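Ticket #280: bound-state structure for 1,3-dihydroxyacetonephosphate.
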Amino acid sequence: MLVNMKELLADAEKGDYAVGSFSVANMEMVLGVIKAAEELNAPVILQIAEVRLKQSPLEIIGPLMVAAAKSARVPVAVHFDHGKTMEKISQALEIGFTSVMFDGSHLPLDENIEMTKKVIEKAKQYGAAVEAEIGCVGGSEDGSEDIAINCTRPEDAVRFEKETGVDALAIAIGNAHGNYKSTPKLRFDILSEVDSLTETPLVLHGGTGITPEDFVRCSKTGIKKINIATATFDKVESTVRKCYNENRINGYYDLQGAEVEGAYQNAKTHILIFGTDNKA
Ligand code: 13P
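RESOLUTION: The complex was predicted; output attached.
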């Protein structure tokens, strides 16, 4: 069933776990994530980032994501990731997304606050949740920019929460999008401080490559939503490659099945690490 992201994160807060937010690029990935969530009886979030719309147009993939959420046997929120323009954020809300992110992390804090407030006003008309980001998560969602990591200042998180009342807040603690060159050393000191000073559910971007132990530690220290993108794409690709190498693909529908399988395996692994199984 399609649900508001706020509900999922509030339940995660009570249950001391984090909800996986899986980036999808096509129907096969949507089917794979939903299959894993249903099998494990887990709530889940489907997301797509604005920079990915070149490959997967919002007017086509958006309704598909919403329809998949509505027909799922578990709670599913549909989220617009790294929204940059009011135009696309509004389009996502119109299609029925139950959550949108405004990424103003590159802006001065004052401007980020002002813009986030405008997005909150807009999302309110649709009853949708809003995520924002302060500090800078490294890299960029599609690898096109090499943005430096700029860790969140706890005092900024306090001010941002107070002035915007945002529903979810992405913070930067040494995490980055894409594959890490070496295992990241997350700044748990900053995370603990932000967690103790704020009440807003926190979001961890750049989930690919973070160790299971760190995921669990994050989920016990205020992180209630964890974004996974590259790991999904990589697993889909490697599963297809493996099936070809083993001569298990004879025709298009075997290829389609391999894609669904890759997305399913990746979502399953992460749902179990995040402790979201049997929380639907
Ligand atoms: P990864 O590609 O590192 O998993 O990051 C995902 C993400 O944060 C999307 O917003």
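RESOLUTION NOTES: The pocket of 1,3-dihydroxyacetonephosphate is lined by residues 23, 49, 81-82, 141, 177-178, 205-208, 227-231 (CB under 6 Å).
TICKET STATUS: resolved
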